[in-house]
Amino acid sequence: MAKVAVVQAGSVLFDAEASVDKAIARLREAASNGAELVVFPEAFIGGYPKGSMFGAPVGMRTGDGRAQFERYFDGAVTVDGPEIARLAEAAHDANVFVVIGIIERSGNTLYCTALMIDPELGVVGAHRKLMPTGTERVIWGFGDGSTLDTMDTPLGRVGSVICWENYMPLLRQAMYAKGVSVYCAPTVDDRPAWTATMTHIALEGRTHVLSACQYITKSEFPDDHPFDEELPYGETAIRGGSVIVAPTGEVLAGPVYDEETILYADIDPGAKTRSHLDFDPVGHYSRPDVFELRVDTRAKGSVTFE
Q1: What 3-state class would DSSP assign to 43?
Q2: Burial class (CB in 10 A: 0-12, 13-18, 19+), 88
Q3: Which of 17, 29, 36, 42 is catalytic?
Q4: Where is the CN hydrolase domain (predicted)?
Q5: CA-to-CA distance for 134 and 194, rounded, in angstroms?
Q6: What's the Cα-to-Cα distance from 124 to each of 5, 127, 167, 269, 276, rounded to whole Å?
């Protein structure tokens, strides 16, 4: 058995240094309680600007919206930057594997990215969200197949699928084919239905599922942050719902709402193997004579210098 942890907490919007400080504190707390793997929510470093439209109604852009984007851009991080180096050092010192959502700055584009950090090797994966949802497409670029990263750990192969990417059946199939046994789902989806999605994926992939969602209130946003629409939960911007599910579909921890917390569970790596007796979505239950999936893992740059 191995202990895993899921951190349910809110980031410090637009302040990468403060968010890293908070992440390191939670990482150390989880490690002190025996966790070998710690999963943080989507956009934990850089923040999730809930409720803002960035002044981008159809056919228009506003000066205020561009100023909002400038602040958001300035609060993002690069994968090789000092903030991530601090996280990697903390993971090394605590001897834990880490999955954490960041807002990645690359050139003049932002990406919603899930980093995978090995305590000895540092950053070993950076999965960019393939399909930003709705208005997220205004502020985030699209990932490509070159970032469907996984990492080996003593708990098994770890992979990450971000928020509503989990509703993309072909992406899930690709991750199952990569042998994911600890399926991490950083998210900001705080609906009760999210637990059903995570349970389905655990059963479908015969994998442990660790979903980390932010909990953050309106009061923790800057005073001038525009909430362009009324929030469904009043003063709570994102209300959590983090959960840990076993390959059998058994919910091991959570879901928890309306508070910051760390969820823990002991997971049995052998549970995945036992679960494949009667179902393997990329093996004996896949019918490759009828269905075939091809995954393009080439990086797609807009400019190539030869």
Answers
A1: coil
A2: buried
A3: 42
A4: 2-269
A5: 18
A6: 19, 10, 25, 21, 28
Cα 188 to the chain's mean position, in Å?
9
Are 14 and 76 in contact by the 8 Å Cβ rule? The answer is no
- 42 given a catalytic annotation: yes
Q: What is the pLDDT of residues 36-86, one digit of tens each?
A: 999 999 999 999 999 888 888 888 999 998 999 999 999 999 999 999 999
pLDDT of 115 higher than 90: yes
187-222: per-residue pLDDT in tens?
999 999 999 999 999 999 999 999 999 999 988 888
Alpha carbon distance 134, 188 (integer Å): 13
Locus of tokens 């890293």 = 20
Residues in CB range of 267: below 8 A, 6 or more apart: 1, 2, 3, 4, 155, 182, 208, 244, 246, 252
Show Cβ contacts of residue 235 under 8 Å, excluding neighbours closer than 6 positions.
Answer: 217, 218, 219
State how far the Cα of 91 lies from the Cα of 118, in Å rounded to an integer: 7
**Do the strands 261-267 and 2-8 form a parallel or antiparallel pair, or are they unpaired?**
antiparallel
Q: Is the peptide bond before 154 cis (omega within 30 degrees of 0)?
A: no
pLDDT tens digits, one per residue of 219-276: 888 888 888 778 888 889 999 999 999 999 999 998 999 999 999 999 998 999 999 9
DSSP state, 162? -
Sheet containing strand 109-118, strands side by side: 122-128, 109-118, 97-106, 37-39, 2-8, 261-267
**How far is Cα 81 from Cα 105, in angstroms, rounded to an integer?**
10
With a CB cutoff of 8 Å and minimum separation 6, the contacts of 248 are 202, 203, 271, 275
Residue 15: name the closest of 74, 70, 99 by CA: 74
Which pLDDT value is given to residue 250?
95
Question: What is the Cα–Cα distance from 178 to 84, expressed in whole angstroms?
Answer: 26
Give the CA count within 13 Å in the CB-facing half-sphere of 59.
Answer: 0
